[in-house]
Amino acid sequence: MASDDDSHPTQRLDDTVHQRVRLGILAVLAEADQADFGFLKDALNLTDGNLSRHVQVLEEAGFIEVRKTFEGRRPRTWISATKAGRAAFASEVAALRELIAGVDRSRNDGARG
Amino acid sequence: MASDDDSHPTQRLDDTVHQRVRLGILAVLAEADQADFGFLKDALNLTDGNLSRHVQVLEEAGFIEVRKTFEGRRPRTWISATKAGRAAFASEVAALRELIAGVDRSRNDGARG
User: Fold this and answer.
1) Does residue A1 lie in a domain region?
2) C-alpha R_g of chain B
3) Helices A37-44 and A48-60, interaxial angle, to 10°?
4) A11 contact residues in B (CB cutoff 8 A)
5) What is the ipTM of this complex?
6) Is residue A58 part of a domain?
7) Nearest CB to A27: which of B24, B93, B103?
8) What are phi and psi of A70, to 5 degrees?
């Protein structure tokens, strides 16, 4: 899956998506329609503060939507990826695939050389 | 290539290596024994200042070595990955492979479901 231009794949990584915690959030949301705050926290082993901070960055970028509901008297925060968020995650994954393909190519060249 | 623990692969990413520019530097150095400053700058489309900053972070982490030489009167700065740097890059790539494998699994499940 080569790209159209010859720039290094890391040039096509967007820090908003690439950052470790945010990449984790978008990866979990890519597998589920929505996840609640506690689920994301456990899945990624984050503190409340750390998850909140990165959720805010992704929300401000338009990559996720945050919806607060009540179950009885218990508040729950539901998070889902937007269409733009899914597209941004797909671009990140495409660039990472290219990066890894480059590693594999160079490993094979080395074995031949 | 599943990991031994069931933590999310993004938990095994190290910000020192994962950061976009530094990941690019280590990827280029994984393919070459050494690269000079100008080559890295062009390959990753970076400014002097941006490359310098990230080279310094990687050097302080023990992941690269910087060697200054002269060719005639022209100074050149050679950069190479250390053994620790190659190992850290390999761990990053392993975690990214896992992340992508998860994406592919969930895509296939979706197609079946």
Assistant:
1) no
2) 17
3) 110
4) 24, 44-45
5) 0.90
6) yes
7) B103
8) -120, 135
Q: Would you write out chain A's pLDDT as a tens digit for each of its 113 residues?
A: 455 568 999 999 999 999 999 999 999 999 888 999 999 999 999 999 999 999 999 999 999 999 999 989 999 999 999 999 999 999 999 999 999 999 999 888 766 54
Helices (H) and strands (E) in chain A, counts: 5, 3
Which domain range does residue B32 map to?
13-107
Residue to test with chain A: of B12, B16, B92, B103, most A Cβ within 10 A: B103
Q: What is the pTM of this model?
A: 0.90
Instruction: State how many domains chain A has.
Output: 1
- The single residue listed with the structure tokens 């159209």 is A4
CATH of the domain at A92: 1.10.10.10
The residue of chain B nearest to residue A46, with distances taken between CA atoms, is B11
From chain A, the residues in CB contact with B30 under 8 A are 103, 106
- Indicate which of B6, B7, B20, B98 best probes the interface with A, i.e. most A CBs within 10 Å of its own CB: B20
Residues 6+ apart with CB under 8 A from B83: none
